Amino acid sequence: MHFLDQAKIFVRSGAGGPGAVSFRREKFIEYGGPDGGDGGKGGDVVFEAVAGLNTLIDFRYTQHFRAARGKGGAGSNRTGAGGGDLVIKVPVGTQILADDEERSPLADLTKVGQRVTFLKGGIGGRGNASYKTSTNRAPRQHQTGEPGEEMWVWLRLKLLADVGLVGLPNAGKSTLLNSVSNASARVGDYPFTTLRPQLGVVRHKGREFVLADIPGLIEGAAEGAGIGDRFLGHVERTRVLLHLVDGSSEDPVEGWRVVRGELDSYGAGLADKPEIIALTKADLLGDKPRAKVVKALELETGASIFPVSAPLEEGMEPLLDAIIERLGAPAAEEDAVEAQDQGHWSPL
User: Fold this and answer.
1) Which residues is 164 bridged to in the sheet?
2) In 109-223, which ranges are continuous DSSP H helix?
3) Which of 26, 156, 228, 316 keeps 20 to 30 A from 281, CA to CA?
4) If we measure between CA atoms, which residue out of 144, 124, 143, 119 comes closest to residue 42?
5) If residue 305 lies in a helix (H) or strand (E), which one and from where to where?
């Protein structure tokens, strides 16, 4: 399945149905009064977060969404049927943004079953029966029904995970993800092997957590270089950052500084998240060079450094222990989230 984390779509709610102009006609009743019914309400546009989706790729091929309009009223004071609501299913973690320069956030769907009525359908028009008065016994007025609301919006997916992997290209993020989780991310001995975010579930000592791997960051990522700003968005919601530093690089300390600089520039609280630092490819270093690099990183970061080798599964136990400790006690299991309407957002 192809991964797509943002898409632009057009949504329109249904128009209200027209009211009817009708008069009662029965045997032996020469002048029956007006009995035109009201039109039905137009359908709403509703977004719903569902399980089992992790991409917005379907919205690349279907970009226009229109709810059904209400049916017209009829004689005998019959109200027209309401138009069916249009429910647009999106992955958990999807944001709905305005189509403006700032892409202002309009809604954020972060739980399975969460629903938001985004655009309300138009009210049905009045039939002529509702215009009857003591002085106007045969009205022919009616309303056509209110139009629906419409707008272009952006959908942006931000993955939900407990721990986010960050680091320079070729730092060994995908290899580590495959080693500790159920993921099968593509691995290669060259930069930018990972071209899209990946998720994996890690099970360790009776605990489970979700680990997210994003493509490697380069200098200027926070400003969009290598579309790094989009990738960083996928670790905004994580509770802990696992920063991988390539032990085989020429200057591991400088590599750490580059990534930290991008986290600071991006904002959104990334620089303030708890950080665990792992020195990858430690098996490629001798004991003395490894100790030297670890000491230099400790002096620069003021944090404990975990030397690891994912292919050989060396150093993984202490690293996973530290992640679980940093995550803290598991949150209490919530009851299944019931689908509920979160209210109506209107652009008017």
Assistant:
1) 212, 241
2) 173-180
3) 228
4) 124
5) strand 305-307
All structural domains of the chain with their residue ranges: 6-157, 163-327
- Which two structure tokens, joined as six digits, stand for 325? 């400790």
Cα–Cα separations (whole angstroms), residue 115 to 47, 89, 118, 135, 149: 6, 9, 9, 48, 18
**Quick one: CA torsion of 304, 309, 315, 320, rounded to 10 degrees?**
80
Closest CA to 165 of 85, 72, 235: 235
**CB contact at 8 A, 255 and 249:** yes
Q: Which residues face 309 on adjacent strands?
A: 314
User: Which residues have a Cβ under 8 Å from the Cβ of 348 and sit 6 or more positions away?
Assistant: 149
How confident is the model over 301-344, as pLDDT tens digits?
999 999 999 888 899 999 999 999 998 866 544 444 444 444 54
Q: Which pair of structure tokens corresponds to residue 212? A: 């997210």
pLDDT, tens digit (0-9, with 9 covering 90-100), for 29-61:
777 899 999 999 999 999 999 988 888 888 988
Q: In this predicted model, what pLDDT tens digit does every residue of 203-224 receive, in sequence order?
A: 998 898 888 887 756 455 444 4
To the question of domain 6-157 being in CATH 3.10.360.10, the answer is no
CATH topology of domain 163-327: Rossmann fold (3.40.50)
**DSSP 3-state helix, strand, coil percentages of the chain (rounded to 5)?**
20, 25, 50
The single residue listed with the structure tokens 């009616």 is 142
